[in-house]
Write a structure and sequence with these properties.
Elements lengths: L5 H11 L2 E2 L3 H5 L6 E13 L3 E2 L9 E3 L2 E7 L9 E4 L4 E11 L4 E7 L1 H5 L2 E4 L8 E10 L5 E4 L3 E9 L22 E2 L2
Antiparallel strand pairs: 1-7, 2-5, 2-7, 2-12, 3-4, 4-13, 6-11, 7-10, 8-12, 9-10
Amino acid sequence: MPVLGINQILIRIQEEGLIEDLGERELKNPEGVGVDFRLGALFQIKKGGAFIEADGEAGLGKRKGVETKEIASYQSSAVTQKSVSLKPGQYYLAQTVETVNTPHDLMPVVYPRSSLFRAGILMLNSKTDPGYKGKLIFGMVNLSPFPVKLQMGARICNMVFFKIEGETVMYRGQNQGGRVTAEKVEKQV
């Protein structure tokens, strides 16, 4: 599967709105084959109880996520962004500043920036399906024995776009728009 070059990404941002709120650095001085996304908000789990059911005779299974609390967010008008300290062994949910509008012919895949894992931060993520529109949500856990300080707006991951050959089915799931978690019981789609 071919990868979209940076020149094609920038054209599609301009002409199609592929990515919204991309940082100036990425628009004016990109490097490599992808674009960096920034930390937009960080959430801590405040209550558990998550579950995911299997599909069965009654139809699609149900699911419930965890309850979260936002602990910091990027402020576009702020001169200095807030920093947070990721505690050793703690799991967080992170949301990007940027919004992606994935067309039918592309599949974005996100890779953590090496500065994260060099500091002991493991980022958990997935591919993004064609048709998904919204901010991206990742899991983050500090695997080091020391706190790691992250500033809102810091570049945390790099998105690469793979060109799809053949048919696609557009994303129609409940996380459309960048929902952080399903806090109530719902039927999967």
